[in-house]
Amino acid sequence: MPAPYRIASPPEPPRTEEADSYEQMLVTERSRDRRTGALLALLALTLAAIGFSSLKPRKPAPAAADEARQRLELRIARAKRTVEDARTRIDEAQDRFARDLRAAIDAELSPSEPLTACPVSLAEPGRLVRGRPSFPLAVTDRGAVTWSPSIHRVWQDVGRAEDFFGGDNPSAGIIYAEAFETSPIEARLVLDVVLVRTKHKVPIRTSPTTYEPGSVDGIAYVYDWRERRFVCAGEVHATNAQALEYSFNDGLDAKSWQVREPRLDATLEDDLETQVARAITAPNVLYSTSGALPPTPPPQTRPSR
Predict the structure, then answer these.
(1) 90-96: which pairs have CB atoms within 8 A and are 24 or more residues apart?
(2) Which residues pair with 211 in a beta bridge?
(3) How many CB atoms lie within 10 A of CB 153?
(4) Is the distance from CB of 168 to CB of 227 less than 8 angstroms?
């Protein structure tokens, strides 16, 4: 049986470059429209979320200011404990120093025989500045309550810190507390010099340009904080210089303490203090008291806070 006759379908017309370009343009536009729609939808959702969140009450988050205040309060509390501990330690050290000084005076502590040089080195006279000896010095009278000059400096810092803690600026006291931590009290107590006066003549101004020199006689004691005893002693005599230079202001705008007479009075006092320090550091004045007086036992140490 013969096969049926089939007629082939005509071939598709060839695609032109114009048709391909047009179809590609439609695809690109549809893709861009989809991306644009997605972005617009995302933007709408974001704006709606922002608007909704603005209507809700905000929850209180931990404020940075509150956290800083709490940290400052903790630092102040720690600084107060440090200063309180410093107060306790200097009180104990001052009690020990006062007992040792009374014992030395009552025993009339003097250089031991044979005379040997003082083991403690003080500043040379040429390095002393008028009115400001370069070593801790206290001038006192027999029977008077005498502060250790080194402890007195520490006590002033403690007092300033306590004033800050009790005032309107407690954070300023932290500076002093940190100083006590970086420079312990024991490191600040090295040596003290005490001059116990036996005679004292106050300088007298006799005119705007003349005066009667003052003088000081006494026994100088050197206290070594490492050994906790007076290690040197010696007799001292000091007198005002015969001639002094000083400045003053007699102008109409001068303060009361700047005019000639008060300035001369102050200069005489400063010069006598300087001459005392120079006399103490002069050669053949201070000698060792080794073995002359046993050290005073320290008091019971209080527990640190």
Answers:
(1) 90/151, 90/154, 90/155, 90/158, 90/185, 92/298, 92/299, 92/301, 92/302, 93/148, 93/151, 93/185, 93/189, 94/147, 94/148, 94/151, 94/155, 95/299, 96/228, 96/296, 96/298, 96/299
(2) 205
(3) 14
(4) no
**Domain segments of the chain: what residues?**
74-106+149-188, 109-144+190-298
Q: How far is residue 91's CA from residue 155's CA, in Å, rounded to a whole number? A: 9
User: Residue 13 corresponds to which tokens in the numbers above?
Assistant: 């017309």
Strands of 87-242 (E only): list them.
137-141, 191-201, 204-205, 211-212, 215-224, 229-239
Q: Tell me what percent of the residues of the chain surpass a pLDDT of 90.
A: 43
Per-residue pLDDT of 73-107, as tens digits, reads 899 999 999 999 999 999 999 999 999 999 999 98
pLDDT tens column, 189-226: 999 999 999 999 999 988 878 899 999 999 999 999 99
- The owner of tokens 């106050």 is 202
**Burial tier of 101 (Cβ tally within 10 Å: 0-12, 13-18, 19+):** buried
Confidence (pTM): 0.69
What residues are paired with 213 via a beta bridge?
none
Structure tokens at 64: 């940075």
CA 289 to chain CA mean position, Å = 36
Q: How far apart are CA 210 and CA 155, in angstroms?
A: 39
Buried b / exposed e over 10-35, threshold 16 CB at 10 Å, is eeeeeeeeeeeeeeeeeeeeeeeeee
pLDDT tens digits, 8-38: 555 555 555 444 555 565 556 566 656 666 6
Pick the closest to residue 286 from 138, 117, 127 (CA basis).
117
